[in-house]
Amino acid sequence: MRFVALVISICLLAACGPKAVAQAPGKPSPTASASPSARPVTPASHIFVIVMENRSYAQVIDSPYIAQLAARYGVATNYHSVSSPSLPNYLALTSGDTWGINDNEFHRLPAGGLGAQLSDAGIEWRAYMESMTNGCLNNTPLYAVKHNPFAYYGGGCPPQVVPLTHFADDMAGPAPRFVWITPDLCNDGHDCSNAAADNWLSQMVPIIQALNAWQDNGLLVITWDEGVGNDDQVLTLMIRPKSTPQRSASPYDHYSLLATIEDQFRLPRLGQAAQATPMNDLLR
Length: 284
Hints:
By secondary structure, the protein is an alpha/beta fold. The protein contains nine helices and ten strands. The chain has helices at about 1-15, 55-60, 65-70, 85-95, 115-120, 165-170, 195-210, 210-215, 255-265; strands at about 45-50, 75, 80, 125-130, 160-165, 180, 220-225, 235-240, 245-250, 250-255. The chain has an eight-stranded mixed beta sheet, sandwiched between helices. Strands 3-10 form a two-stranded parallel ribbon. Helix 4 (about 85-95) runs parallel beside helix 9. It is globular and about 40 Å long. The protein starts with a helix and ends in a 20-residue tail after the last helix.
């Protein structure tokens, strides 16, 4: 009922218009390559990122709603996580490094990361954490700090990290140019079934697509943090208005996605994103 109320609220709005860790390199990213004949990429007006949990490409590609998105929009068919378990992948996505971390514990990292980059550049952003009800450093039955990378840089969350319940009010005004969404432990598929995660996406994605911020040359990215066991291939969807079905077999990973986001906002690339190949073939 809580999520349904959120859906109704946003749809109405849319209709109106503790330890230090030394930095260490993670798994090497696919290296960048020039493509001088490719058409230039027009920067997105807004970027939305949703990170799902613990499913390989093969496990989710046939889920009913996800399959609909894959048939209509851009799909990276050779995209891989960079580490295991969850936390180092979230750090790779937001700082270009796993920091040598191979667990899900709390680590106080130096201040920085993608959020700090955006703030320093004067770019409005928000990170929405579903079921975060007692501050960003406190787990709840459905909210896990390990799925909130912004909590680690500097050892605490910036004010841009808020519960998902703030989403409707924020989108009623000018939308932040960068939006990160972490579903809760059921809706991201971590503790619940593919069907539950697929159903959550079937509600959340249309809400984002109804926003002017997405309709006016926006970009929605849906990715999974890691696969299962030895299968590190994960699905990544690039969803743009007026796009045609696209497939890319280029070797991509979380550093590639970070490089893509930073390039879109004209930000310096962090860590291993500096050598990564941006996912431009799915943005043309």
